[in-house]
């Protein structure tokens, strides 16, 4: 069964390029196209895609506002933000809005296709250059947790706290298992419990929580 993709970009040439690329890929299919954020929200509700590839800068409604409406509206679709700017000031806002991925348009085409597959499978993906921008954003913020966060932290075990810290540092489940000398299956179980206990959407959300709780401090 192929992954259903909605393309949202105000540049017809960008949409056409992605559409042609996906058309040659047996496990992906484009089910619709939008030129504004408003159209993206409406088509997501109408077509129920698995993944929305969303440009961050569009007229009428930008990609961040559209993503927030899609996520808060309860749609099953997961959103990948696609931008020309890997140093975009809106990276943090897009992830907080519920985006599951953040890619730059100059990435290799195969990498973009792989990102769609990864996000459709329920994981999260951020381009390395964007990750650096996100970390820089956190570095400029106070490390102290907000009043609501300590309560959430006390609801997890010491081992889960260790796992959350390592997730915040960007480690994969395999790397976490190696660091803590546990099995990969056990690491996955701890991460799954963190999703439930912290009501996190995905791994990106866990990374954000780790920073906001003060479990991870950006190196300066």
Automatic annotation (TrEMBL):
Modified residues (4-aspartylphosphate): 55
Pfam annotation, one family: Response_reg
PROSITE patterns for this protein: HTH_LUXR_2, RESPONSE_REGULATORY
A GO BP entry: regulation of DNA-templated transcription
SUPFAM superfamilies assigned: C-terminal effector domain of the bipartite response regulators, CheY-like
Domain HTH luxR-type: 147-214
Source domain of life: Bacteria
UniProt entry tagged with the keyword DNA-binding: yes
UniProt xrefs under CDD domains: LuxR_C_like (cd06170), REC_NarL-like (cd17535)
This protein's UniProt keywords: DNA-binding, Phosphoprotein, Transcription, Transcription regulation
Statement: the UniProt record of this protein carries the keyword Transcription: yes
GO molecular function, a single term: DNA binding
Domain Response regulatory: start-end pairs: 4-120
Protein name: LuxR family two component transcriptional regulator
Native source species: Asanoa ferruginea
